[in-house]
Amino acid sequence: MLSLSLRDRDRISVLRQVVWQADTELMNPNVDDRVIAEAYRDDPVAATAEYGAEFRSDIQGIVTREAVEAVVVPDRRELPFVPRYRYSAFCDPSGGSADSMTLAIAHLAGEVAVLDAVREVRPPFSPEGVVTEFVQLLRLYRVRRVYGDRYAGEWPREQFWKHGVVYKPAEKVKSDLYRDILPMLNSKRVELLDNSVLVAQLCSLERRTGRGGRDSIDHPPRGRDDVANAVAGALLTASEARSRKAEVVPFRV
Hints:
Structural class: alpha/beta
Strand order of the largest sheet: 6-5-2-3-4-7
Helix content: 25-40%
Shape: globular
Number of strands: 9
Distance between the termini: 92 Å
Low-confidence stretches: 245-253
Strand content: 15-25%
Radius of gyration: 23 Å
């Protein structure tokens, strides 16, 4: 049996902790450079971890202020209805006591998702009254179906339907909406309104990495993201409109 001194054992213990850290380009030159470049463009933080061999911190911002401001159209507060466009809407409901209730409307122009209008009603308010107000805006853009948070229960569906508008729970949760809007922001495939609340909320979003390595994106503690949530949902819904069949939902008088 080999007998080791205490000093040798310490040296072996140190050697066991040595790791090799190198980026994908060095470790696997067969990976297409264009794939790596596209990943960095869409989501620099995730790409740095995936291809750059850099460990993530527990909390990181998902988008820079420069990237957000680059897609803001200065002095554009709202766009009028244009008949040739098909508009999409997304609502972030609220019970009226704590969070704002928000609505965003967007359309697709070529490959760019364009934000047309945003509404935010801050508490306290009557949810039924806000729905009535939102429906008036939806009518201006001829929107008959609005998507929204699936965790709000049945009341948004019931209240919107009183006005002949279908409220459909979104398939994606909020964190997924933010994840999917990020590549569009970084590649400048969106146009945002000049809205300081929207810009601040987008810039404050944080990516948290759980123990299992799963990411989630949300506002910081005591922060707000009601406007950002509605806008992300509207832009994604507009960008995906081509892949959905046209659904005719007439307004009820």
